[in-house]
Amino acid sequence: MVSGLQLSKHGSTPFEDPALYRSLVGALQYINITRPDVSYSVNNLCQFMHSPTVAHFHALKRVLRYLKGTMHLGLQLRQSPTLVVNGFSDADWAGSPDDRRSTHGYCIFLGSNLVSWCSKKQRVVSQSSTESEYRGLVVATAEITWLQHLLQELHVHLPKPLKLWKGDRGRCKDCKIIPNENLTIHHKFLMMNLKIKQQGRKKALYERSRIK
Length: 212
Prior knowledge:
Blueprint: H1 18-31, H2 39-46, H3 54-69, E1 85-91, E2 103-110, E3 113-121, H4 129-153, E4 163-166, H5 187-211
Parallel strand pairs: 1-4
Antiparallel strand pairs: 1-2, 2-3
Helix pairs in contact: 1-2, 4-5
């Protein structure tokens, strides 16, 4: 898909063969197992399987042409000198033009190997870019914590603490991830912290309006 392209269920004529669209997009979901580079595009296309349009089918064909031209690429696992776990999380804000919901994504590396990744639209509408980033961090933290417990059960020693990095630092100034041996960020705590900060901003704006 073209960078920055926002697909919508409006603005284009309905596709004449919805069954073909559903069949092709359904097949693309299996490619995510070895091609994480198309995870976002496939997730975006899956959101319009109930009523695809011509614009959606054009975007689908672009993904297929990309895969045809990059058949030599794939997910490769190599021996890594160190078993250091690094996670990367990012999220947009109100990226969907239809319901204004945000999309978050993460990828987790064990050494130099990519072992887990995800791109998914958030279930609720975020009121700010900070809230969108927080929700993405919560999902990434749950995954990286699960990976930590799995490695512990397999008696795999991690030489360094787990690290979770967030993208777009300017949009999430209130987020601070301090990695430690027991990396846990509780969703309830994060949302409570976010609500307190939002209430503080609203109160400050209210006081300014009263002064005026």
